[in-house]
């Protein structure tokens, strides 16, 4: 299961990604989660993190840093903030806290 998870993430949510690949990754992750034997805490954690990465990447309609969205090749200023998920649902992005230096 861990090898399949790595493969799904590399193919669908790797350095170059697009909406179709992210959808395939999300479906594959859901299938892996459904087939996983109960009580596999490490696998459950890996699946949770992978699914959040895929959801956040799908929500960000831009390219940023080393991650290229082939369907959105340019950065977009509106995404220069963290995404917050609660109970599997994306909340409105919250502005980053800025520290004040003295």
Account of the protein in words:
The chain is mainly alpha-helical and 102 residues long. It is 47% helix and 8% strand. It has helices at 2-13, 19-35, 41-59; strands at residues 16-17, 68-69, 85-86, 89-90. The strands form 2 sheets. It has a two-stranded parallel sheet with strand order 1-2. Strands 3-4 form a two-stranded antiparallel sheet. β3 (85-86) and β4 (89-90) form a beta hairpin. The chain is globular and about 40 Å long. The protein starts with a helix and ends in a 12-residue tail after the last strand. The model is unreliable at 95-102 (pLDDT under 50).
Number of helices: 3
Quaternary organisation of the protein chains: single chain
Low-confidence stretches are 95-102
**Largest sheet, if any?**
2 strands, parallel
Query: Largest beta sheet: what is the strand line-up?
Result: 1-2
Rounded mean pLDDT is 84
DSSP E strands, number:
4
Beta-strand fraction estimate:
5-15%
Distance between the termini: 50 Å
What percent of the residues sit in helical stretches (DSSP H or I)?
Answer: 40-55%
Shape field: globular
The radius of gyration is 15 Å
- Which structural class best describes the helix and strand composition? mainly alpha
User: What is the chain-wise order of helices and strands?
Assistant: HEHHEEE
């Amino acid at each position: 299961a861990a090898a399949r998870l790595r493969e799904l993430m590399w193919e669908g949510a790797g350095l170059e990604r697009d909406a179709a690949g992210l959808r395939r990754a999300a479906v594959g992750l859901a299938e892996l989660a459904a087939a996983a034997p109960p009580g596999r805490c490490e696998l459950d954690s890996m699946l949770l993190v992978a699914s959040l990465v895929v959801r956040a990447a799908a929500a960000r309609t831009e390219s940023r840093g080393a991650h290229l969205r082939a369907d959105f090749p340019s950065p977009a200023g509106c995404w220069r903030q963290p995404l917050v998920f609660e109970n599997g649902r994306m909340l409105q992005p919250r502005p980053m806290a800025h520290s004040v230096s003295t």
